[in-house]
Write a structure and sequence with these properties.
InterPro entries: AAA+_ATPase, ABC_transporter-like_ATP-bd, ABC_transporter-like_CS, ABC_transpr_LolD-like, MacB-like_ATP-bd, P-loop_NTPase. Keywords: ATP-binding, Nucleotide-binding, Transport. GO terms for molecular function: ATP binding; ATP hydrolysis activity; transmembrane transporter activity. It comes from Deinococcus peraridilitoris (strain DSM 19664 / LMG 22246 / CIP 109416 / KR-200). The protein is α/β, with parallel strands linked by helices. The protein has one domain (about 1-90, about 135-215): 3-Layer(aba) Sandwich (Rossmann fold). About 35% of the residues lie in helices and about 25% in strands. The protein has seven helices and ten strands. The strands form two sheets. It has a six-stranded mixed sheet. α5 runs parallel beside α6. The protein is globular and about 50 Å long.
Length: about 220
C-alpha cells in the first residue's frame, strides 16, 4: 500500500521512507507519540495530501501521481474513512447519512444502509437526526457509513478518541468485527489500548520511521 513513503513541510521531514501493506480483512494499528507522523501517514494513504516521495497503492492501483479530482472519485468508491469526529450531517436522517456515499455516486444505498445500521444496533434510530443520538451512537453510524460502499480499505484516525470507556469498547469491537466480516483491510491510528489489542499487527512510528512491528500493544501516549 505504501512504498518508501516520504513527506516534509518545508525543511521539516515528517516521514522517512515508510513502507507497509494491509491485507483484506487485516486490522493494522499505528502507534506513536504526538508528532511522530501518524496522522500525516494516514492522510497521505487516503490521498488527501501528496507525498514528497514514494508510492501509494489502493487495491493494486498506484494513486499518488493522479490528480486530486481523480483521487477523490476513487476514494469515494474504494476507501472508507472514520475520524475522531463523526461528521454526520445534522439536516439528514441517520439513514440518509449512512446512505450518502451511494447517493453521491448516483446509486440508492438505503437497503445496504439499513442492513449496516441493524448490524451496529441502530435500526430503531434510522429516521432520527444525528443530534438526537449519543456520542457512541453517532460514531457507530459513522462506521456504518464508512463501510457502505464495501471499501477495500478502511482508514480510521482515533475513531474512539472522543468516547467514554464503555462506548469506546463497543465501537472498537464493532469496527474490527464488521471490517473483518466485510473483508476490508483496516489501518487505524489510535492511543486506545483496548482498540489496538484487537488489531492483528501494531506498527510503532517514531520520528517518521516504523521502528518495530509487534502483536502486543503497549502504547506510548
Amino acid at each position: 500500500m505504501a512504498l518508501d513513503l516520504r513527506h516534509q513541510f518545508g525543511d521539516v521531514r515528517i516521514l522517512h521512507g515508510v513502507s507497509l501493506t494491509v491485507q483484506p480483512g487485516e486490522v493494522v494499528a499505528v502507534a506513536g507519540p504526538s508528532g511522530s507522523g501518524k496522522s500525516t501517514l494516514l492522510h497521505l494513504i487516503a490521498g488527501l495530501d501528496q507525498p514528497t516521495g514514494g508510492e501509494i497503492h489502493w487495491d493494486g492501483q498506484r494513486i499518488d501521481h493522479l490528480s486530486g479530482e481523480v483521487r477523490a472519485g476513487l476514494r469515494a468508491r474504494r476507501l472508507g474513512l472514520v475520524f475522531q469526529h463523526h461528521y454526520l450531517l445534522d439536516d439528514l436522517s441517520v439513514l440518509e447519512n449512512v446512505a450518502l456515499p451511494a447517493l453521491v455516486l448516483g446509486g440508492d444505498g438505503r437497503a445496504r444502509a439499513r442492513a449496516l445500521l441493524a448490524q451496529v444496533g441502530l435500526a430503531h434510530r434510522e429516521q432520527q437526526r444525528p443530534g438526537t443520538l449519543s456520542g457512541g451512537e453517532r460514531q457507530r453510524a459513522a462506521l456504518a457509513r464508512a463501510l457502505l460502499t464495501r471499501p477495500a480499505l478502511l482508514l480510521a484516525d482515533e475513531p474512539t478518541g472522543s468516547l467514554d470507556r464503555a462506548n469506546a469498547v463497543a465501537v472498537a469491537e464493532l469496527l474490527v468485527r464488521l471490517a473483518r466480516s466485510e473483508r476490508a483491510g483496516v489501518l487505524l491510528v489510535t492511543h486506545d489500548e483496548n482498540l489496538a489489542a484487537r488489531a492483528d499487527r501494531v506498527l510503532h512510528l517514531l520520528d517518521g520511521r516504523i521502528e518495530e512491528q509487534v502483536r502486543e500493544t503497549v502504547f506510548p501516549i
